[in-house]
Specification:
Number of strands: 14
Shape: elongated
Helix content: 25-40%
CATH architecture of the largest domain: Alpha-Beta Barrel
Order of helices and strands: EHEEHEEEEHEHEHEHEHEHEHHEH
Bound molecules: phosphoenolpyruvate, manganese (II) ion
CATH class of the largest domain: Alpha Beta
Number of domains: 2
CATH topology of the largest domain: TIM Barrel
Number of helices: 11
Strand order of the largest sheet: 13-12-11-10-9-8-7-14
Distance between the termini: 35 Å
CATH superfamily of the largest domain: Aldolase class I
Length: about 325
């Protein structure tokens, strides 16, 4: 349930409502926007309505929220969420470019990757240290050593860094190294991991599960947010369909659908969505046009030698050309 406050509602009105709601054992979420102040009520609202059947002073109207996700719901917060990570902004009218290799393979490789994606215009470096590989015999990642190399590459280039965590243990290690945590498609419904990410004070990129509906995905975001960490970024990375020409099928419609349901930033991963290097550029253009808040793209200094996902990785030159090509599209969409 949401209480929309009148324009002339006082601080005292708001304070009183919050106190009453809490006294019924329910939680509140206050959102003070430029034009609208709204108080979200989370929990069994019957208790509150029994205690206070009418409208509270200062309340203009009550909106019922039928969706099970509340904090992620646009009805709870009308303005788009924007996160400022030491000057790098995600969401709102900002467009973020995240790029780097699928996996951190060595100190030299991640530094070379960082330098080339920085030169092309990326502001965040990606790289996996804990790799959720389909086969147990494939390269599993350098774990903490990889995070050390990546942190060093981030510091040398001034790029923020993001890396995936596949377990609570990995999360506890990674949070001392990275600026953004990533929870991958395979773990989108690992609820214990989501709750642990909710207790960390770091933004989280939450990728869409391979077969997850948008509602399941938003509920996964709610798991993180309900633990206190509201800085979630949703990443569409393709879903499983009957189509085999691409690794997954990019659900471009997820962008406008999410924009109508949530205030959380939405980014696109054309690399895992397609699995094919030559499709990255057209899918990136589509992402910008659909209103995505950014892209996350796999770039490897030498894709032919990559230990994972070489076939979908761009080389530095192709990535630089793509960034240059996307620039006017990004401006056209009113993004910086
Ligand atoms: C990745 O980003 O390296 C990754 C494994 O992605 P996903 O979880 O989308 O498969
Ligand atoms: Mn990958």
């Amino acid at each position: 349930m949401i209480l929309v406050m009148k324009q002339n509602a006082t601080e005292e009105n708001i304070k009183k409502i919050i106190e009453t709601v809490h006294s019924c054992g329910l939680k509140t979420h206050l959102s003070t926007g430029e034009s609208l102040t709204i108080i979200g009520v989370i929990g069994d609202k019957k208790k509150l309505l029994e205690k206070n059947p009418g409208l509270f002073p200062g309340v203009e109207r009550i909106i019922q929220v039928s969706e099970s996700y509340k904090l992620a719901n646009k009805k709870f917060k009308a303005e788009p969420s924007v996160y400022d990570i030491d000057g790098v902004k995600i969401g709102g009218d900002n467009f973020c470019m995240i790029a780097g290799p699928c996996a951190i393979e060595s100190k030299e490789q991640i530094l070379e990757a960082a330098q080339c994606v920085k030169k092309a215009g990326a502001n965040i470096l990606r790289g996996g240290a804990y790799k959720p590989r389909t086969s147990p015999y494939s390269f599993q990642g350098l774990e903490e050593k990889g995070l050390e190399y990546m942190k060093e590459a981030g510091e040398k280039t001034g790029l923020k860094i993001v890396s995936e965590v596949t377990s609570i243990e990995a999360l506890n290690t990674a949070k001392d190294y990275v600026d953004i945590l990533q929870i991958g498609a395979r773990n989108m419904q690992n609820f214990e991991l989501l709750k642990a990410a909710g207790k960390a004070d770091i933004p989280v990129i939450l990728k869409r599960g391979l077969c997850a509906t948008i509602d399941e995905w938003l509920n996964a975001a709610e798991y993180i947010m309900s633990e206190g960490n509201e800085r979630v970024i949703l990443c569409e990375r393709g879903i499983r369909t009957f189509e085999t020409s691409t690794r997954n099928t990019l659900d471009i419609s997820a962008v406008p659908v999410l924009k109508s349901k949530t205030h959380l930033p939405v980014i696109i991963d054309p690399s895992h969505a397609s699995g094919v290097r030559e499709y990255i550029a057209p899918l990136s253009r589509a992402a910008v046009a659909a209103g995505s808040d950014g892209l996350i793209i796999e770039v490897h200094p030498h894709p032919e030698c990559a230990l994972s996902d070489g076939a979908q990785s761009l080389n530095p030159t192709d990535f630089e050309n793509l960034c240059a090509e996307l620039k006017p599209f990004i401006s056209l969409m009113g993004r910086k």
